[in-house]
Each structure stands twice: as structure tokens, then as C-alpha cells.
Design goal:
Layout: H1 17-33, H2 40-72, E1 74-75, H3 83-87, H4 92-105, E2 108-112, E3 117-121, H5 124-150
Antiparallel strand pairs: 1-3, 2-3
Helix pairs in contact: 4-5
């Protein structure tokens, strides 16, 4: 044996010498059987860089779309929301109702008093549910107020 080298039998690592020789033969068969085996490192590098690039582009586009949806929000256009119903949103009861719906649904609801428009901001599925709940709640409040006035 040479100066600094220490020989450790394969059995010291818990490996059967026959299994080790079989694995070495199998690796050589793969290496010799595939003409591109010699280029494996370069091919793997190219594949990984292409995949990362494609995934990054897809992810960036999806994030941008989601961000635009969050920033733009959705204007509520519902036939039942007449200007009279929208003017209810200036009342204390309506403001409390709007804040309650907003908190329950995890969205942000903005009411533009000058233009009488409602915008809802948040995840797309939550925005649709928030719109349904807000419209139903506003109409119920309107009906309640009309009943109160008549009595």
C-alpha cells in the first residue's frame, strides 16, 4: 500500500462485495449502451435551464394576471342595485353591513358616492361570492326599510 492511503474492506461499510460488483457492471452496461451518456451532464444542464425558464415565464404571467385582478377589482353591476338602493350605502346600517360582509369574505369593498358604484377587491372566487352576499344583504336592508316606513 502507498503512503497516505488506507485500505478499508468493502464489508466494513455493510456492502456485499458481490452486490457492489453487480452495480458496477450495471453502470458500465448503461454507460456503454447509450451513445449520449458521455454528454449527460451537458444535456441535464440544458434541460434544467429550459425548464426553469419556462416555469419562470409561466409563473410571472400568472402572478401578473392575479395582481391585475386584485388591483382592478370588480365593479358590481347588478340590475337590482338601483340608484335608490345604492344611496342606502350612505346610511350607518349599510356601512356596517358592508364592513361585515367585507370582513366575513376577506375582501375589500369600496363605494364611490359620487358615481354610485361599488368595487370589490380580492381573490376572484371571493369577489363573486362577496358580490352575491352584498347584493342580497342590500336588497334585504332596502326591503326592511320600506317595511319600516310603511308602518
Amino acid at each position: 500500500m502507498g503512503g497516505d492511503h488506507v485500505y478499508t474492506p468493502v464489508t466494513d461499510f455493510g456492502i456485499n462485495e458481490g452486490e457492489l460488483n453487480e452495480k458496477i457492471r450495471e453502470c458500465r452496461r448503461v454507460e456503454n449502451g447509450l451513445p449520449i451518456y458521455g454528454f449527460r451532464s451537458e444535456i441535464l444542464k440544458m434541460l434544467h435551464s429550459q425548464q426553469i425558464s419556462a416555469n419562470a415565464t409561466k409563473t410571472a404571467a400568472e402572478l401578473r394576471r392575479l395582481l391585475e385582478q386584485l388591483m382592478n377589482g370588480k365593479t358590481v353591476n347588478h340590475g337590482s342595485l338601483t340608484p335608490i338602493v345604492l344611496q342606502l350605502l350612505s346610511s350607518r346600517d349599510s356601512i356596517m353591513l358592508m364592513k361585515s360582509v367585507q370582513q366575513q369574505m376577506g375582501t375589500c369593498i369600496l363605494f364611490d358616492r359620487q358615481n354610485l358604484t361599488i368595487r370589490i377587491f380580492g381573490p376572484v372566487n371571493q369577489v363573486a361570492l362577496t358580490e352575491q352576499k352584498l347584493v342580497a344583504s342590500l336588497l334585504a336592508l332596502r326591503d326592511k326599510q320600506q317595511t319600516d316606513i310603511r308602518l
